[in-house]
Amino acid sequence: MKITSFNPLIVTKDAEKVIALFEALGFEKLHTKEDISIDNVTDTIMEDSDGHRVDISQGTGEWTMIRMNVDNLEEAVAFFEAHGYHKARHEAARDTVDTGSSKFNIMVSPTGTIFSVSQHLED
């Protein structure tokens, strides 16, 4: 498994407020993906001039997690499970979510650390 990117992901009920905060910090919107999962989440990827990225997702709850893009999702899920992580129990993220351009799993450690492990799909 190769990690291709790694950044914070903020899930919030008020994404516009968080996006405005990061814009004030010098981040710009790079990409927005809509209608993700059964909760119809909208995810906005932002980047600053130094290449730092943050994902901000409009969701139904409030979570902060780490987004990790990998080249092999199944291998990554097996790795995390071997280290005591489990797939999220939330209905919208309990199974692998396919967004059309990527697929991901939410993995949770025994102590509550959350990873959104994602693989981009080839066109």
List keywords for this structure.
single chain, 123 residues, alpha+beta, 2 helices
Textual characterization of the structure:
The chain has helices at residues 15-24, 73-82; strands at residues 3-12, 28-36, 41-47, 53-58, 63-70, 86-87, 97-98, 102-108, 114-120. With 123 residues, the protein is of the alpha+beta class. Strands 1, 2, 3, 4, 5, 6, 7, 8 and 9 form a nine-stranded mixed beta sheet that branches. A hairpin with a 5-residue loop joins strand 8 (102-108) and strand 9 (114-120).
Q: What's the rounded overall pLDDT mean?
A: 90
Instruction: Output the helix-strand order.
Output: EHEEEEHEEEE
N/C terminus separation: 20 Å
- Strand proportion: over 45%
Structural class: alpha+beta
> Over all CA atoms, what is the radius of gyration?
14 Å
**Largest sheet composition:** 9 strands, mixed
DSSP strand tally: 9
- Helix run count: 2
Shape: globular
Helicity, in percent?
A: 10-25%
Quaternary structure of the protein: single chain
Uncertain residue segments: none
